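INFO batch 0412 | record 1 of 1 | parsing
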Amino acid sequence: MFAVVITQFVMAYLVRDWAWWKLAVASYLVSGTLNQNLFCAHHEISHCLAFKKPIHNKWLALYANMCLVVPMAIKFREYHHDHHLFLGQDGGDVDLPTVLEANYISNTLMKTIYGFFYLVVYGVRPVLVRPKAFTFDDAVNWALVMGANAGVLYFWGFKSLLYLFAGSILGGGLHPLAGHLIAEHYMFEKGQETYSYYGPLNALTYNVGYHNEHHDFPQIPQTRLHQLRKIAPEYYEPLYQHSSWCWVIFKFLTDPKVGPWSRMHRLERDGTSEGNAQFIAGNCQYGTEFGATKGKVAESKAKAAPEAKDAKPVLAARQPSTRAAAAKGVAGLKQQRHMRSDSAVENYMPDN
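INFO prediction complete | emitting tokens
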């Protein structure tokens, strides 16, 4: 990660006087690849799998965000934990496309435009569907990234900053590495919610392709996910799996049966009733902050315990249910339910 960030800033310096066509090629091939690599790195850091201490993971995330132009390190962690905790649940899992997306992104032309700007949609959707409070950590994140942007613009010029920004957009759009954004949860096999990819591009994306394995055990670092598949092949080999992210993108763009509606929607959260009640009583805060400590969590549990029995779900969808839109894709989609071997609630208790 240190090498990738340094490489990006060196490249930004080198392209400052390049011709526009050379800048465009470099932005897609080099900046797009390296910035998408950093986005995948953020995914690994969001689970605190780079260092043992959360604070060290936070510092690394802030550093890795410096050349991405858009501040996202802090909020990505919060929203990504929601993705695990409310997987497939409307209003909680902001990875689910909205009704607007499902209704209007319905043909190859619209899906191509959608795919080109996919990372923009991916970044804006959470703010609209489930806005979160702006924190001190967010302020630090914004100050560092915007300061880096200002420095690049002032000392090297517009082309250097455009190289970095274009890399974030292009690398998260119609780019081979960005195929994982569609491959992970868009339904290519009826009734299967999550998909793994076992191809060579895992080497550039921190093994994010091992996605079934990751969702089953989010605390296993990317360097060891292949061991999980090796020791438990009966759980992963029979599942539909991808071998090419380029094929996934092509299939998404051209197949009329695949689109933003092709996602599984859960009627309720997975997990034990006790774990869910405890999580809800704690206002869904356990494990979503970089700085969470065992002491703080224990104190929160103690306060929440008396209310756990009568706890009511606090999560309310901020959009119309997307299940109606999902029905236009695979018939009976909303009745499907994929059971996992664990509960995301227990996985994300910081003292577990």
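INFO post-check: DSSP finds 18 helices and two strands in the chain.
INFO record closed
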